[in-house]
Give the backbone structure.
Amino acid sequence: MTAEEILQQIQSRFREEIRTAEVRRGEACVTIKADRNFEICRFIKEELGYDYLNCLSGVDWTADKEMEVVYAISSLKQPGKIILRARVPQDEPVLRSVVPLWGTANWHEREAFDLFGIRFENHPDLRRILLPEDWIGYPLRKDYQDERFVAYPWEDRKPGSVPRPTTA
């Protein structure tokens, strides 16, 4: 199935839920409304046969006040890859978990929660995976601030010099 055919099938079934759709570098790239992520993922897995979740990543779009989850989905039996994107408001980043579809989503969703604060409804064990449970904040958000952060004067660096921390 070509990337164009994949897009046609997704669009014919979920036309109202699609924000953008295009073929990029031979991959079907679709941005969807977040409230239907589970149904669309289930269609991709069960109807289209794309049974392998390669990766699930979080993205912070601070300028748009949104967070994004990117699903990279492929098939072990057919060529091609689907890049599915779902954006949620930054102040309420919640999506439905896809762990019931792909068990590998378990750790990926926990990582997106731990580092970006994106919550996944119905996740079987949504808790921090890399940071301690008492960690405050989400360090991969662009607005994250930590009192331990030490700024470096990158703009004042001369070639060959070693950057030295400045006082905060």
